[in-house]
Design a protein that fits this description.
heterodimer; A: 966 residues; six-stranded antiparallel sheet; five-stranded antiparallel sheet; B: 154 residues; 5 helices
């Protein structure tokens, strides 16, 4: 083969490159480049027409300068000129320049497309390939519009050269990915599928990528490819190592094509046709057999190529998950690799086995390798291999080996790399909880976790252990004893102090009988840690102390003295000072009964999914945690995971009574809401700054969409609201927070708060995929009349939402006057090239602007009578769609925003409420009466709901909204 | 990284190919996704950082953002291919080697300087073997025959 000499063809270019390489400094390089740029500019501008060679040389120099990292702002036209040259080398440089410096300058695009068009119709295969490669590299929409119709024709035409077919197939693939709407396969489908039969292996190699992509999008239309792929695969697999000549790589016949065929088959379920299936199983068996044969070469290329096919075959076997025999054979093969001297193979075997562990057929077979995997965890040099070993241990864990695996993972944690500790901690915590038979083991494990890797124990983990201890009374005594012992260590992690403080505060009484852990000993132990802890932990400890006063009256004097000390009661931290002052006061004035009520034991937590699991998934991205975790557990907490755990901490500071509203000590400021409290002032400013003009603007379409949409509005019209959006709206009438919407890609969470006639809503858009959303935009609009009733303002969101990430959007709402409709939220983004367009109703309802009004029975009835005109009353009688649980009803009525008035209605079964709806224009007093016939048979239960207000529209709307809630 | 590809698990492709030397100089950057120039520079630096710290006892694979890099070192040059996490590691590892053998034959014992002075030809070699993020041709004989034919053209 003749070699290519340095820069042959363009001497001037070689000289320039040498000059640049000889530059001693960055400055010298820039100087040389500027000189060259000036030279090229003058040549391009000069009177003398440049010949093709010079143009090529200068364009190539410009390209080189660009690739060095400098901006190039001229030369595009000269590059485009080169496209129409008859000489390959000139054309090639022109196309290369265009491909690298894509410029969406529309005039140039037209010229470029024109040149491409000429080359495509030139019947010169070299020029056709150059043109196709340019389209494949740029792949712009303009190009798709111009060529999406032409390329399929080139691809399937009988007289097209093989190399052109290869390029055409992949070019089409690129256009399909960029603009699927423009590539219509319809009539070509069958002929494209039959490219799998092409004699030229290179054509098959290229075409199969296109077919795989199209199949994954339209499996039904392309399903004939399955039998073709199987027979092609079968021919390759059964061929001798030299049969395929050019396509044999280190004695392995067509390794890349085999992998692609096996990958295509993973778009489909196992073939239904028995003969096809038999043939495929035979192929898979042959591939597994070949892995056992002695290698035909000692070269690593040989074994890599062979194993590339093997791993792809195993992926297919796992994908089918229906052939126990193959699954077990695959597992055995991977088991051999676990001890292979090649690090790559050990890594890949661990990774592949992780998915095998989740198949019921091979789970047991995977488990037999536990010792090897544990050994890998201990001895592998490459951290990524150890990581896979840890993943596999996690995946193969079940009740039978949980204790061994958790113990090994714990001991590995002592020396584990910092980069994977947090994930390991989460995994240990999950396994310990999932497979705990006796909860004392669970408690031990978590406390060990804190001891070994306290810094990596996130809040979710320690919240969770507290939830579990509180919910299981059989473990409470053990937990108290164990934390007490753990706290004996002279240096223990702050997380241990948190758990200790919480658990002893709740259950210290269970071990107080032992003089070695008497109340005072417990208190002194906790307090000995106090000064080394951060503010939140100290706050938690103060709550533990007040609980101690309740649990053990004998500690009262000691603790009061501590609370009274200057370092507490005059603490510079407001939160600590407030707790000290209030707890001291509470302990001195409250009677024992009151104290006992206020500081009653925590009620059990509702059973819910482990927030730790959600966190692990978030860390690893979907798919990576492939264990048999139930799908239902996938739903991550939108509002920052473990919020119930957060409540636990708050409740601790509240010293907990069961009623949710009993914020006796006013300590809720530690809660997440605190972030929003100071913003109330600025909220007012924000809302009022533009309130006037926006309200009066008209311009409404018949269908209610605002014509005055923001200037950045995308070209696509917003989709009509989802059919279920009314239902979603109803879900939020009596609550302010929760998940508004969820599909496979996107989850939208809501947090909102209202004050007077103002509201602020936080929308959390969570990307559930591992792939970025692009062109993400949201528009909030007020259809029809609503425009003059509500003033809604939003800030735009970032156009990119990373995979697994969440973005927040704040919406400010001002209620100008009462209203019926809800604002519309339209969300648009591109996922995998496809536009997603979703419209929802924002759950802003008139009742959000209620101010509760307390009043005595006499007042209530007096006002009730004053509102006796027929139009002031709205009434509905309806069947109960849910049970008539008193607490639930009360919670809903409170959620509505009104005050629930006790002892007003003569009939204790009935509920009456009062509130004032605050709008900018007026205040509308509103009275409500709900009469259930609870005695009726289930299914016959009815309500009568009566609303009276000073405004007929308000009565009707509130009545309609509320009637949907019961 | 923007993944504009089809979401199905079976459809994968190359995100970019990089050739860098130990000092971090880029000798080839071929992108199969849209990035702006700053992002490209960032990616180049990140890849260099993760790849150069690894030694021969490590695997040829390294997790990278939501993707993975399959790489192999030849003398002072790192050849890196960025693909989806579930793609076939060994197929791409040998894809790199196949590419390097073609370069070696084409440039007759290829060295780093060949790639510098003939950067515009390297792009041609890449397009012959990888197109639109997919493997286009794997036969060394066929690729070299085509390259020699192009070489003979004016």
């Amino acid at each position: 083969m003749p070699a290519v000499s340095k820069g042959d063809g363009m001497r001037g270019l070689a000289v320039f490159i040498s000059d640049i390489r000889n530059c001693k400094s960055k400055e010298a390089e820039i100087k040389r480049i500027n000189k060259e740029l000036a030279n090229i500019r003058s040549k391009f501008k000069g009177d003398k027409a440049l010949d093709g060679y010079s143009k090529k040389k200068y364009v190539c120099k410009l390209l080189f300068i660009f690739l060095l990292g400098h901006d190039i702002d001229f030369g595009h036209m000269e590059a485009v000129n080169l496209l129409s040259s008859n000489k390959y080398t000139e054309k090639q440089i022109g196309y290369l320049f265009i491909s690298v410096l894509v410029n969406s300058n529309s005039e140039l695009i037209r010229l470029i497309n024109n040149a491409i068009k000429n080359d495509l119709s030139s019947r010169n295969p070299t020029f056709m390939c150059l043109a196709l490669h340019c389209i494949a590299n740029v792949g712009s929409r303009e190009m798709a519009e111009a060529f999406a119709g032409e390329i399929p024709r080139i691809l399937v035409a009988g007289d097209t050269m093989d190399s052109v077919k290869q390029s055409a197939a992949l070019c089409l693939l690129r256009l399909y990915k960029a603009s699927p709407d423009l590539v219509l396969m319809g009539e070509w489908t069958s002929r494209v599928v039959h490219l799998l039969n092409d004699q030229h292996m290179g054509v098959v190699t290229a075409a199969i990528s296109l077919i795989t992509c199209l199949s994954s999008k339209n499996p039904d239309e392309f399903k004939t490819c399955v039998s073709l792929a199987v027979s092609r695969l079968s021919r390759i697999v059964s061929s001798a190592s030299t049969d395929l000549q050019d396509y044999t790589y280190y004695f392995v016949p067509a390794p890349w094509l085999s992998c692609k065929l096996l990958r295509l088959l993973q778009c489909y379920p196992p073939p239904e046709d028995g003969a096809v299936k038999g043939r495929l199983v035979e192929c898979l068996e042959t591939i597994l057999n070949k892995a056992q044969e002695p290698p035909k070469s000692k070269k690593v290329q040989h074994s890599n190529a062979k194993n590339a096919i093997l791993f792809e075959a195993i992926s297919l076997i796992i994908h089918y998950d229906s052939e126990p025999n193959l699954l077990v054979r695959a597992c055995n093969q991977l088991g051999q690799f676990l001890q292979h001297r090649e690090t790559n193979l050990r890594y890949l075997a661990l990774e592949s086995m992780c998915t095998l562990a989740s198949s019921e057929f091979s789970h047991e077979a995977v488990k037999t390798h536990i010792e090897t995997v544990i050994n890998a965890l201990k001895t592998e040099r490459d951290v990524s291999v150890r990581q896979r070993a840890a993943d596999l241990l996690y995946a193969m864990c079940d009740r039978s080996n949980a204790k061994q695996i958790v113990a090994e993972m714990l001991s590995y944690l002592e020396t584990a790399d910092y980069s994977i500790r947090e994930e390991m901690v989460l995994k240990v915590a999950i396994l310990a909880e999932k497979y705990a038979v006796d909860y004392s083991w669970y408690v031990d494990t978590i406390l060990n976790l804190i001891r070994i890797a306290g810094d990596y124990v996130s809040e979710e983990v320690w919240y969770r252990v507290i939830q579990i201890v509180i919910n299981r009374d059989d473990v409470q005594g053990y937990a108290a004893k164990t934390v007490f012992e753990a706290l004996q260590a002279p240096a223990c992690h702050e997380n241990m102090v948190k758990v200790g403080g919480y658990i002893l505060g709740e259950f210290g009484n269970l071990i107080a009988g032992d003089p070695r852990s008497s109340p005072l000993v417990q208190f002194n132990l906790l307090h000995s840690k106090f000064h080394l802890c951060s503010v939140p932990t100290r706050a938690l400890l103060l709550s533990a102390y007040i609980k101690f006063i309740n649990l053990f009256p004998e500690t009262k004097a000691t603790i009061q003295e501590v609370l009274r000390s200057d370092s507490q009661i005059r603490n510079s931290d407001v939160e600590l000072q407030q707790r000290a002052v209030e707890y001291l006061k509470l302990s001195s004035i409250a009677s024992t009964d009151v104290l006992a009520t206020v500081l009653e034991e925590m009620p059990p937590f509702p059973e819910r999914e482990s927030s730790i699991l959600a966190k692990l998934k978030k860390k690893k991205g979907p798919g990576a945690v492939s264990v048999e975790l139930e799908d239902g557990k996938e739903r991550g907490e939108l509002n920052g995971g473990g919020d119930r755990g957060g409540d636990a901490a708050i409740a601790a500071s509240n010293a907990s009574t069961p009623s949710p509203s009993a914020d006796l000590l006013g300590l809720r400021s530690a809660a997440p809401v605190s972030g929003t409290a100071p913003s109330a002032g600025s909220l007012l400013v924000d809302v009022f700054s533009e309130a006037g003009p926006a309200a009066s603007s008209a311009g409404v379409n018949d269908d209610g969409f605002l014509s005055s949409a923001p200037p950045s509005a995308a070209s696509e019209d917003p989709a009509p609201p989802l059919p279920e959006s009314d239902e979603l709206l109803n879900k939020f009438v009596c609550k302010n927070n929760g998940v508004l919407f969820e599909n496979q890609l996107l989850q939208i969470g809501i947090k909102s708060e209202y004050r007077q006639n103002l509201g602020r809503m936080y929308l959390f858009y969570g990307n559930k995929t591992s792939v970025q959303f692009v062109s993400f935009s949201t528009i909030v609009s007020c259809p029809g009349e609503l425009q003059s009733q509500l003033n809604v303002q939003t800030k735009t969101v970032e156009p990119l939402v990373e995979g697994g990430a969440q973005v927040q959007q704040v919406i400010n709402i001002e209620c100008l006057t009462d209203f019926i409709d809800a604002p519309l939220l339209n969300i648009k983004f591109r996922y995998g090239g496809a536009l997603q367009n979703i419209s929802l109703k924002l759950p802003v309802t008139i009742n959000k602007f209620f101010q509760p009004t307390e009043m005595a029975a006499a007042d209530f009835f007096q006002r009730w009578k004053q509102l006796s005109q027929p139009q002031q009353e709205a009434q509905k009688i309806f069947k109960a769609s849910h049970g008539m649980d008193t607490e639930v009803l009360k919670a809903k009525l409170l959620g509505l925003g009104t005050a629930l008035l006790e002892n007003v209605d003569p009939n204790p079964e009935n509920y009456v409420c009062a509130g004032v709806i605050q709008t900018k224009a007026q205040q509308v007093g509103c009275l409500l009466r709900l009469e259930p016939n609870a005695q009726a048979q289930p299914g016959e239960q009815m309500y009568r709901l009566t609303l009276r207000s000073s405004k007929d529209t308000v009565s009707q709307r509130v009545c309609d909204l509320l009637a949907e809630q019961f | 990284l923007v993944a504009t590809g089809v979401g199905a698990k079976t459809y994968r492709r190359i995100r970019f190919i990089l050739i860098q030397n130990r000092a971090g100089k880029t000798r080839l950057a071929k992108w199969y996704m849209q990035f702006d120039d700053d992002e490209k520079q960032k990616l180049i630096e990140e890849v260099h950082a993760v790849v150069t710290v690894r030694d021969a006892k490590h695997t040829n694979f390294v997790e990278f953002r939501n993707f993975k890099i399959i790489y192999r070192r030849y003398a002072g040059l790192y050849f890196c291919i960025c693909v989806d996490v579930t793609d076939n590691n060994l197929a791409y590892l040998e894809g790199i080697h196949n590419f390097v053998e073609v370069l070696n034959e084409y440039f007759h014992n290829v060295c780093e300087l060949d790639l510098v002075f003939n950067f515009y030809k390297v792009y041609t070699v890449v397009d012959e073997m990888f197109l639109a993020g997919e493997i286009r041709e794997t036969s060394q004989t066929k690729v070299l025959k085509q390259l020699l034919m192009l070489q003979s053209l004016e």
